[in-house]
C-alpha cells in the first residue's frame, strides 16, 4: 500500500444522441455537434450595445434571425433572443462586459440541435409543427419558437431545404424518434 | 384549427401555440389590503362569463411567450381582434365594421401570412390520397 497512486477522474461530457443520424427518401436527419448557446433578454435600449459585443446584430423583427461568423441570433420574442455560437466562441463571456441592462443565461447544454435537410424537410417538420413552413411564409433565415408534436422547439430555416431544430435535451429522444418516423412518412 | 393573430409576432399562428389566461381588464386595487371582503370576492372570483363578446388574456406560450388581449365571441369561438397587453379596451361596436376578422377562417387568402399565393399547383391526379 506504499504506492497508493491517487487517480483523478476527469468527467467526459456525453452529449445526448451524439452523432446519430437518419436518412429517408428526400430527407436526412442529423444530430448537430454541441454548440455554445445563450438565452438573452434585454430591453430595446440595450440592443445596440449587446449587438456590438456579440458581433452580430440582434434582429428586431418577429420571426427573423441574423448570422455572422458562425454565430446566429434568433428572435424569439420582443425582448428575447437565442444566440447560438458554432465557431467555438463564448457569447456569455462577450455579454459579460456589457454595462447596459440585460440578462444572459448560458443554455449550451440545455439544448440539442438537429438538422433536417432535403426536399422533404418541411414536410417532415410539418408532421408535428402546425406552422406554415412554405418558403413564402417561412423564408430562409426565418426562425420561430413553436411546437413539434408535444414538445416545444425552436426552428430556424438555414437554407431552402434545410432546417435547424433546437429542443431541450431531455426531449431529444422524443424529437429524434418523432422526426425519424415523420421522415419515413414524408418520403412515402 | 384556429389561427390566432399574435400582436407581437404580427401574424396568425396556430392555436396550439397559445394558452388562455382568463378574463382581461380586471384591475387590481392599488391597496389590496384595504379592499372589503365583498369587493375582493368580486375582484378575485367573480367573472362576467358572457354569452357573446368576451375580453380575454391569452398567452403565446409556445411562441414569443408574451401575454396579449383578445376579443372573442364565446358563441362562435371567433376571434374578433387581438391587441397588445396594456392597450385600452377597444370599443367593439366601432370595430366590427372596420377591422377585418382576426380568425383565419374569415380572412381571404391574400390577407394571410403568405403575401402572394404561390404558383398554382398542378391538379392532383385521380386516386391520389
Automatic annotation (TrEMBL), chain A:
Gene Ontology biological-process annotations: sarcosine catabolic process
Any GO molecular function: sarcosine oxidase activity
InterPro entries: SoxG, SoxG_het, TrmE/GcvT-like
Source superkingdom: Bacteria
Coiled-coil intervals: none
UniProt-listed Gene3D superfamilies: Heterotetrameric sarcosine oxidase (3.30.70.1520), Probable tRNA modification gtpase trme, domain 1 (3.30.1360.120)
Protein name: Sarcosine oxidase subunit gamma family protein
Species: Mesorhizobium zhangyense
TrEMBL record, chain B:
BP terms from Gene Ontology: tetrahydrofolate metabolic process
Classification via Pfam families: SoxD
Regions of compositional bias (Low complexity) in chain numbering: 120-129
Region (Disordered): 88-129
Basic and acidic residues bias: start-end ranges: 88-99
GO molecular function: sarcosine oxidase activity
Protein's UniProt name: Sarcosine oxidase subunit delta
Source organism of the structure: Mesorhizobium zhangyense
Amino acid at each position: 500500500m506504499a504506492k497508493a497512486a491517487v487517480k483523478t477522474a476527469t468527467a467526459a461530457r456525453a452529449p445526448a444522441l451524439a452523432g446519430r443520424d437518419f436518412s429517408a427518401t428526400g430527407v436526412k436527419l442529423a444530430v448537430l455537434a454541441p454548440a455554445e448557446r445563450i438565452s438573452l433578454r434585454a430591453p430595446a435600449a440595450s440592443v445596440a450595445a449587446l449587438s456590438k459585443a456579440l458581433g452580430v446584430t440582434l434582429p428586431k423583427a418577429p420571426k427573423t434571425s441574423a448570422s455572422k461568423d458562425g454565430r446566429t441570433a434568433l428572435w424569439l420574442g420582443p425582448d428575447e433572443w437565442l444566440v447560438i455560437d458554432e465557431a467555438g466562441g463564448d457569447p456569455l463571456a462577450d455579454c459579460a462586459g456589457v454595462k447596459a441592462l440585460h440578462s444572459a443565461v448560458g443554455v449550451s447544454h440545455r439544448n440539442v440541435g438537429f438538422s433536417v435537410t432535403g426536399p422533404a424537410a418541411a414536410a417532415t417538420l410539418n408532421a408535428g409543427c402546425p406552422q406554415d413552413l412554405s418558403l413564402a411564409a417561412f423564408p430562409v433565415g426565418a426562425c420561430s419558437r413553436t411546437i413539434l408534436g408535444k414538445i416545444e422547439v425552436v426552428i430556424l430555416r438555414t437554407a431552402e431545404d434545410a432546417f435547424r431544430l433546437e429542443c431541450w435535451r431531455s426531449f431529444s429522444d422524443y424529437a429524434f424518434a418523432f422526426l425519424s418516423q415523420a421522415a419515413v412518412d414524408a418520403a412515402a | 384549427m384556429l389561427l390566432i393573430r399574435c400582436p407581437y409576432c404580427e401574424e396568425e399562428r396556430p392555436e396550439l401555440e397559445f394558452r388562455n389566461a382568463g378574463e382581461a381588464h380586471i384591475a387590481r386595487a392599488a391597496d389590496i389590503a384595504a379592499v372589503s371582503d365583498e369587493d375582493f370576492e368580486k375582484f378575485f372570483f367573480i367573472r362576467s362569463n358572457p354569452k357573446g363578446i368576451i375580453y380575454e388574456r391569452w398567452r403565446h406560450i409556445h411562441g414569443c411567450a408574451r401575454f396579449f388581449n383578445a376579443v372573442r365571441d364565446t358563441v362562435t369561438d371567433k376571434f374578433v381582434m387581438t391587441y397588445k397587453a396594456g392597450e385600452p379596451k377597444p370599443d367593439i361596436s366601432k370595430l366590427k365594421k372596420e377591422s377585418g376578422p382576426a380568425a383565419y377562417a374569415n380572412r381571404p387568402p391574400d390577407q394571410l401570412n403568405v403575401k402572394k399565393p404561390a404558383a398554382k399547383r398542378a391538379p392532383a391526379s385521380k386516386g391520389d390520397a
